[in-house]
Amino acid sequence: TQLLEQSPQFLSIQEGENLTVYCNSSSVFSSLQWYRQEPGEGPVLLVTVVTGGEVKKLKRLTFQFGDARKDSSLHITAAQPGDTGLYLCAGAIKTSYDKVIFGPGTSLSVIP
Amino acid sequence: EAQVTQNPRYLITVTGKKLTVTCSQNMNHEYMSWYRQDPGLGLRQIYYSMNVEVTDKGDVPEGYKVSRKEKRNFPLILESPSPNQTSLYFCASSPIAGYADTQYFGPGTRLTVL
């Protein structure tokens, strides 16, 4: 059974602070995605990383894919209240198609 | 506007009363999928469809049925709902079957089975 773990499960920080969210598995992924979900809405894709060691930046968000393609991190610099939401990582495993499994999510609350 | 729509958004029903949650996408996507989201468990795939008339079980298919008679529609059917199917349900679509492409999610359907 493939399993994706995320830590921390909950995070509450003050506006302006930095934070890192982790996504870990014992499985190797062909790609890994990060989604953000706001209350009452479906998840929205933030980024896809494909190559081991890859780093992608999206404004104040930095995403890294582990060298072994088993883990990933999301770092947010100078968090803002608009960053509040549930952050989900999703790993793709090669079967007959790219099966995607989701982690349980990290719920982030940024307090003004 | 490119989107995935689901109906209803909220539903309260009783055990055993058959229900259907509709899902429609206007992006001509091949791949469609249903997930349920429960606290601490994340999104778990119920069923998926690679194309019209092609459906397959995901990780938690028990108690659910789907059909894909048209490319744009992918309804989720609960023949005899039970309280353990109380959950938040999401439909998703992506352009190409078989690839971990961007999935576009609907707004969700919150189902309560009493």
How would you sum up this structure in a few lines?
The complex is a heterodimer of chains A (112) and B (114). By secondary structure, chain A is mostly beta strands.
Report what the structure shows:
The complex is a heterodimer of chains A (112) and B (114). Chain A is mainly beta. In chain A, 0% of the residues lie in helices and 58% in strands. Chain A is built from no helices and 11 strands. In chain A, the strands form 2 sheets. In chain A, strands 2, 4, 5, 9, 10 and 11 form a 6-stranded mixed sheet that branches. In chain A, strand 7 and strand 8 form a beta hairpin. In chain A, 38% of the residues are buried. The model of chain A has no long low-confidence stretch (mean pLDDT 93). In chain B, the strands form 2 sheets. In chain B, strands 2, 4, 5, 6, 9, 10 and 11 form a 7-stranded mixed sheet that branches. Chain B has a 4-stranded antiparallel sheet with strand order 1-3-8-7, with no helix packed on it. Chain B has 114 residues and is an all-beta fold. Helix content of chain B is 0%, strand content 50%. Chain B contains no helices and 11 strands. The N and C termini of chain B lie far apart (36 Å). Chains A and B meet through strand 5, strand 9 and strand 10 of A and strand 5 of B.
List the helices and strands and how they pair.
The complex is a heterodimer of chains A (112) and B (114).
Chain A: E1 4-7, E2 10-14, E3 19-25, E4 31-37, E5 44-49, E6 55-58, E7 61-65, E8 71-76, E9 85-94, E10 98-102, E11 106-111
Parallel strand pairs in A: 2-11
Antiparallel strand pairs in A: 1-3, 3-8, 4-5, 4-9, 6-7, 7-8, 9-10, 9-11
Chain B: E1 4-7, E2 10-13, E3 19-25, E4 31-38, E5 42-51, E6 54-57, E7 65-66, E8 76-78, E9 87-94, E10 104-105, E11 109-113
